[in-house]
Write a sequence for this structure.
């Protein structure tokens, strides 16, 4: 068997221990471990426990400040800003969430800007954390300039995910979360680790030629999804979660990395909308209309985004997870040889 079976508690304990070993303060280690365990639990390998290697590298190379103390301000009545002071983004998000929720309830809409932080993770844990309060959520973050605009072959954009969440009373929320690149970079990294080719439409080599070699795409440029449409959405993410909130574009993040191969440095924008603010007494009827739409999707055999993830979650909560043996060995080696 080239995989190792673990319960989620065992995985959480291992992740917390390794993150503390590389120097993360306990509150950061716990917040970061939680997002990695959630990724592994939900069958998101590219943003699961593999990210321990990525986070350890970001700390070792001085990209992430391991004991940063997030600083919370309120630049306007419906805005929360959390300066991550160079640390990982999970703790600043956790610290800003209660104020975001309170403001969204008070004003009907509110936004949280996490700035000056290091982001290596999926966005769905954050939109799910907002929908858990009965709010609708949108989240965006730029990354490093790895992705060519449609019509070009040179990197400009990050992989720039967009996530959306809609609360569903008594059910898991409707959530989608996708990179605006053809695929997340983490997926290409996993192909490279496994020695597997990638589809030709994922990216170009450094000379701008299509290639199926994962390492060549990582050295060259990834493609956006959906041609010019994904390209425009990638630009939107750059603007909303970069300059708008006083933070870096993906090109600036890559330049700030200076070849250290750390995770992206910069901002994340989370927007929360309160259905009760828009709908008042009409809420139940309109939420029923939303449910009818979901039924029309599933009723014809199509699936909702996140359905795969929720199914994986149910299995992992029951049976635990299986970690590739090489990845498990690489994680155990973190901090063990200086
Ligand atoms: P995927 O293409 O794997 O999935 C995108 C979304 O589409 C998911 O919500 C998925 O749900 C849904 N989906 C997939 N197939 C179907 C289907 N047949 N029918 C309906 N819905 C479907 O995501 P990406 O590779 O683009 O991104 C993976 C992760 O990488 C994201 O979580 C993203 O946040 C993260 N990321 C983070 C970055 C960062 O800078 N922090 C940068 C780029 C990506 P399901 O999960 O259930 O399959
Ligand atoms: O997979 O593209 C990615 C990614 C970038 C930052 C975190 N994940």
């Amino acid at each position: 068997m080239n995989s190792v079976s673990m319960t989620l508690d065992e995985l959480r304990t291992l992740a917390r221990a390794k993150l503390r070993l590389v120097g993360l303060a306990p509150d950061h280690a716990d917040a970061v471990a939680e997002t990695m365990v959630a990724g592994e639990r939900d069958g998101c390998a590219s943003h699961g426990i593999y990210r321990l290697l990525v986070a350890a590298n970001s700390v070792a190379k001085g990209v992430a400040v391991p004991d940063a103390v997030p600083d919370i301000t309120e630049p306007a009545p419906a805005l929360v800003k959390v300066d991550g002071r160079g640390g990982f983004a999970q703790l600043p998000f956790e610290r800003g969430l209660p104020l975001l929720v309170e403001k969204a309830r008070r004003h009907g809409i509110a936004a949280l800007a996490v700035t000056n932080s290091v982001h290596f993770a999926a966005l769905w844990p954050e939109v799910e954390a907002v929908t858990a309060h009965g709010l609708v959520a949108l989240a965006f973050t730029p990354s490093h300039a790895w992705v060519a605009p449609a019509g070009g072959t040179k990197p400009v954009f990050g992989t720039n995910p967009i996530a959306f969440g809609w609360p569903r009373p008594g059910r898991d929320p409707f959530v989608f979360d996708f990179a605006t690149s053809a695929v997340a970079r983490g997926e290409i990294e996993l192909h490279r680790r496994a020695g597997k080719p990638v589809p030709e439409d994922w990216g170009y080599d450094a000379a701008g030629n299509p290639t199926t070699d994962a390492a060549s795409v990582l050295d060259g440029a990834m493609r956006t999804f959906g041609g010019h449409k994904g390209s425009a959405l990638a630009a939107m993410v750059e603007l909303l979660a970069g300059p708008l909130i006083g933070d870096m574009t993906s090109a600036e993040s890559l330049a700030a990395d200076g070849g250290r191969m750390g995770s992206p440095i910069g901002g994340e924008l989370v927007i929360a909308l309160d259905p009760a603010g828009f709908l008042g007494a009409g809420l139940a009827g309109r939420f029923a209309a939303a449910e009818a739409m979901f039924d029309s999707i599933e009723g014809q055999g199509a699936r909702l985004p996140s359905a795969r993830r929720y199914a994986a979650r149910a299995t992992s909560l029951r049976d635990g997870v299986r970690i590739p043996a090489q990845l498990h060995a690489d994680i155990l080696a973190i901090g063990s040889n200086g």
